[in-house]
Specification:
With 529 residues, this protein is mainly alpha-helical. It has a domain of 126 residues. 48% of the residues lie in helices and 4% in strands. The chain has 21 helices and eight strands. The radius of gyration is 23 Å and the shape is globular.
Length: 529
């Protein structure tokens, strides 16, 4: 019966490099999974608002277990299972030390996403069903998980050896060992800052250890940890959930009906940029007439931005909790559209809703990078660490300024946005005060990090909760309190999938008991103080 029950189309072993590739590409390439970013994270950070998904779920605090569970139910059975398996099979194998270290580093990164979203999660026993027969893994505390992160990253760095095996199928660093080491060390800085309010001594020790041990870190744009995707055709069929080669987050932001469901910029985000004269304002936000846009391409969008600026038209971004039609925006008389109407009288052009800022087409392409960590983020971390009095070289303000410059250059380098000139940059820096007190400086650093992390929604939400900046108002304060069925306060975590209460009931309940007995999204995670 053995030959009869053996599927000849299945491999007996899997190349761990292929398993790494799958896990990396799934990060932003899994269409079903990144829906959670659009539905909840972008609303909680108040960067997008207006399209149905973002407003209905996150903007109006609507609890939906299916929407909240996508990341859990996608990462664990695919990326985490593959990485744990690859790590297990390459452990202590001399000719596979580099791939072993790489899968460890990436496992830690993906696990950080899971724990930052949900809190206590299966970690030490996760993905070991085939290896150890564990079908009901325990939920480790977030504190123990984070402490393990530091140990695992440090160990992975020490294992890497330029003279040993080559990492193939690496769609981040193309197998560059030195870059993987910088990536691991930079994650240690991020994680140290994450726990800095709840475990300050451990945080300072870990942060300083990276620097004093001479560990190289991501310190310029060429070092950025970005996942390379291809510009494959957008589609919303079942195959899109398993074909990870394109950036599915960009696809979702483009929308399955872009003429009626584009990505609108939230007033909180737009006003922060526009009112402070940020040169990134109209590189990120544009005003489009989308009546001619096809379902698969943004090529036919009519850009009205410059005309609106010249005519001094009032911009009307959506407030937290509002759909794109609440209230219906006032249109204006567009010379561009009138000329198009004259050339093609059969088309009825309208600008009834074009005064709402929308996400620039630069960010709606399938080959947009998947953002993991950048030099700008690392410099913001160094600046805040220096502000805390940790042993960091450099000046707080100099690091802060360099981080903003990197953040602006990142948009050009990765999204083909128009370069920000030195004159624009210096004018912006000169007209926006860094702050005088330490708290004001902390606010400036983390508000800038919030802007930077626009294309990295989970890190944006995590850093916002950790730092407390920028201060966000509940949609209730904008007049939408009657719609907030999940509570007026902005949620602090996502709830565990409801099926965990059946399939892993004992361990699930232990985790809930540590949180006061409720699977509530208003219970903060361990590091959120």
């Amino acid at each position: 019966m053995e030959s009869l029950n053996t599927d000849p189309s299945k491999a007996e072993t899997i190349d761990p490099n292929a398993q790494l590739t799958t896990a990396i590409l799934q990060t932003y390439g899994d269409l079903s999974m990144v829906q959670t970013y659009r539905s909840y994270m972008y609303a909680f950070t108040q960067q997008l608002m207006g399209c149905w998904n973002t407003t209905n779920y996150g903007g109006r605090h609507t609890l939906d277990n299916n929407e909240m569970s996508h990341i859990w139910t996608s990462f664990y059975p695919i990326a985490i299972k593959n990485l744990v398996d690859a790590e297990h099979r390459t452990a202590n194998v001399e000719e596979k030390v580099n791939i072993n270290a790489a899968v460890t580093i990436y496992k830690v990164y993906l696990m950080s996403i899971l724990t930052d979203i949900y809190g206590d999660i299966p970690y030490s026993e996760a993905g070991r069903g085939y290896i150890d027969g564990i079908s009901t893994p325990k939920y480790d505390t977030q504190e123990s998980i984070y402490f393990s992160f530091f140990d695992e990253l440090k160990s992975a760095v020490t294992r890497m050896d330029e003279s040993k095996d080559r990492i193939t199928g690496d769609v981040i660093f193309k197998g560059n060992i030195a870059q993987w080491i910088k990536f691991a060390n930079s994650l240690r800085l991020r994680f140290a800052m994450r726990i800095s309010e709840v475990a300050p001594q451990k945080a300072q020790q870990e942060f300083e250890d990276v620097l004093t041990e001479g560990g190289s870190i991501i310190n310029n744009i060429s070092d950025n940890a970005l996942i390379a995707y291809i510009d494959k055709a957008f589609s919303f069929g079942q195959e899109s959930n398993t074909d990870y080669r394109g950036n599915s987050l960009s696809q979702l932001l483009f929308g399955n009906d872009p003429a009626n469901n584009p990505s609108y910029i939230c007033s909180t985000f737009f006003n922060e940029l526009n009112k402070k004269g940020d040169p990134r304002t109209f590189r990120i936000a544009r005003f489009y007439y989308d009546g001619l846009m096809s379902p698969t391409s943004s090529d036919n969008r009519v850009d009205l931005t410059d005309e609106m600026i010249d005519k001094n038209i009032t911009f009307q971004p959506r407030d937290p909790g509002a759909f794109s039609w609440e209230p219906w925006p006032t249109g204006y008389d567009s010379d561009i559209l009138k000329a198009m109407q004259a050339n093609n009288p059969s088309i009825n052009y309208s600008v009834d809703r074009e005064t709402e800022p929308k996400l620039s087409s630069n960010f709606l392409k399938g080959n947009n990078p998947g953002v993991i960590i950048t030099s700008a983020e690392v410099k913001f971390l160094l600046s805040e660490a220096k502000l805390k009095g940790w042993n960091v070289e450099g000046d707080i303000y100099t690091l802060y300024k360099a981080a903003i410059r990197d953040a602006m250059d990142f948009l050009t380098d990765s999204y083909s946005c128009e370069p920000v000139s030195e004159e624009e940059f210096e004018k912006y820096i000169a007209t926006n005060n860094f702050g005088y007190t330490n708290e004001q400086k902390k606010e400036s650093i983390n508000t800038q990090a919030w802007i930077l992390h626009f294309t990295n929604p989970i890190e944006c939400w995590s850093n916002l909760r950790r730092s407390g900046y920028p201060r966000l108002k509940s949609p209730e304060e904008y007049g939408y309190g009657q719609f907030l069925t999940g509570g007026v306060n902005i949620p602090l975590r996502l709830c565990y999938p409801v099926l965990e209460s059946s399939y892993n009931k004992e361990n699930y309940q232990k985790a809930l008991d540590r949180m006061g007995g409720e699977n509530s999204w208003h219970t903060p995670v361990w590091w959120d103080k």
